Amino acid sequence: MTYWPAWLSGLALALVALTHWLAVRRMLAVSGRFTHLVNRLREGPPVEGEDDAMSEAELLAAVQAMALAEFGAEAINAAEAAEASAAPEALDAIAEPTASAGPQPLWLHAAFLAALLVGGVLSALAAGGLTVDSGLASAGFEATFGSGAPSYAVLLLGGVLIGWGTRMSGGCTSGHGLCGVSRAQPGSFVATCAFFGTGIVVSFLLEAVL
C-alpha cells in the first residue's frame, strides 16, 4: 500500500476539518452523527411540544434542585460568587447562544455518513480499482485468525470494543484527534494518546508474534 507523505496527509485532514466547520459551523464528529441516527431509530422522532412541557422558571428550579442535591450548598454558593465576579462581557458571551446551538436535521447526518462511503469508493477507484472483500485483506490477520467464522468473531468483537470506547471517551478519532487536539483540549489529548498509543503497542505485539 502506498501512503501519502506525512505533511500532505496532515494538511488534507486539516482541510477536511476546516471545510466541515465552515460549511455547517460544527466540529467534525463522525461517531456523534452515527449516534444521532441510531438514537432516532431507537426512540423515534421527537414529540412536538415535548421541550415546552416545563416553563423556564420550572426548568431553572429543577436544575437548581438537582445541583443542590449533587454538589451541596457550598458548591452552589461558590459558583454564584464566581459568576458575580466575572466580567460582564464574559457573561454576555455565555448567555448569547451561537447560531449552531440548535440540533442539526436528520438528513444532514445521513448525508455526511453517505459522503464518507462515496469518498472511500472514489479513493479505491483512484488507487486502481474497487474490490469487495467479506474479511480483512491482511495476510497476517488471516494467518492468525483464519478466514472463516473465527475471523468474523474477532472483527465483530473489535467493532464492539471500538464503539464502546468511543462512547466512553465521548468522541472518536475525528472528534478528539483532529478537532479536540487542535483546540488543545486536555481530554482529547488523553483520549488520543490512549487510542493511538494502544494501536501502536498492539501493532508491535502482532508483528512480534507473526
Give me some keywords for this one:
mainly alpha; 210 residues
Can you walk me through this structure?
The protein is an all-alpha fold and 210 residues long. The chain has a domain at 54-95. It has helices at residues 6-24, 30-43, 56-71, 73-85, 88-95, 106-126, 139-145, 149-169, 173-182, 186-209. The relative contact order is 0.09.
Number of helices in the DSSP assignment: 10
Distance linking N and C termini: 19 Å
Helix content: over 70%
**Rg, nearest Å:** 23 Å
Largest sheet: none
Oligomerization status of the protein chains: single chain
Low-confidence stretches: 93-100
| Number of β-strand runs | 0
- Round the mean pLDDT to the nearest integer and report it: 79
Provide the fold topology.
Blueprint: H1 6-24, H2 30-43, H3 56-71, H4 73-85, H5 88-95, H6 106-126, H7 139-145, H8 149-169, H9 173-182, H10 186-209
Helix pairs in contact: 2-6, 3-4, 9-10
Write a compact overview of the structure shown.
By secondary structure, this protein is mainly alpha-helical. It is built from ten helices and no strands.
